[in-house]
Amino acid sequence: MSQEAKKRARVRDRVAKSTRRRIRVGATRPRLSVHRTISNIYGQIIDDAQGKTLAAASSLDKDVRDSLKGLKKTEVASKVGAMLAQKAKESGVTKVVFDRGRFQYHGRVKALADAAREGGLEF
Description:
This protein is 45% helix and 19% strand.
């Protein structure tokens, strides 16, 4: 790994930690954490007090992978957000804190968040 790549990685980590630090101050709700890659998107609802994942959904889940073919990335993110909200309701979670990590609240991240809100999650 080159020096420039290491520097970029440190900056990304610093941004993500800064975002999480602001979220965790006084947070009593579980956190909805979002991660995206070039081709996929992932969402988890995490209870930091217990250190457990309460619900998770991604564009790679076997039960929805085939139905996502041919959709745009933002449409896929919306489907994942709705699926995550459904799984959260099944596990008894209705209120969360949104953790965008190092990603801007824009595009696919926003689409996932909006779909999760429509699915019944409050944040």
